[in-house]
């Protein structure tokens, strides 16, 4: 099957029962996405597929053939961190770091959803033309990513510092 993982086109063979998380970790040796709960409840395995965040532990790899998959390793590199990665360091958005790759990938995907006009459970007007990234919106949109260390304030500060001015206007919405 054909994949594009972190910008690299690949032809891979694997058991059709293989999860995307296991494919990334065991075959591609990309260990950023973590196997936390293996039930889709913690978000440690979050990666981006065509810009949309997913729990890779719940996804069969074969479902994502011909898709562009981005892991934390594909967002930045040593010396060239993604702005959100740098903000996590600056704002102490991590303690043990286990959840950090999933948190960062989820936040990048969350901004994509915001730009596409996807409302959250706390959006006051779900038919609004634009959504502002308030602390309440941010916390709700990131609620699927858990941090056992409780670094949530640093995580929120890092995301707000990086994307706080983000909001969508009808003319700039992208297709989901």
TrEMBL record:
GO MF term list: 2 iron, 2 sulfur cluster binding; metal ion binding; oxidoreductase activity, acting on the aldehyde or oxo group of donors
The keyword Oxidoreductase is assigned to this record: yes
Sequence ranges assigned to domain 2Fe-2S ferredoxin-type in this UniProt record: 1-75
Gene3D superfamilies referenced in this protein's UniProt entry, alphabetically: 3.10.20.30, [2Fe-2S]-binding domain
Pfam family, one: Fer2_2
InterPro entries found in the cross-reference section: 2Fe-2S-bd, 2Fe-2S-bd_dom_sf, 2Fe-2S_ferredoxin-like_sf, 2Fe-2S_ferredoxin-type, 2Fe2S_fd_BS, Aldehyde_Oxdr_Iron-Sulfur, Beta-grasp_dom_sf
Protein name: Ferredoxin
UniProt source species: Caballeronia sordidicola
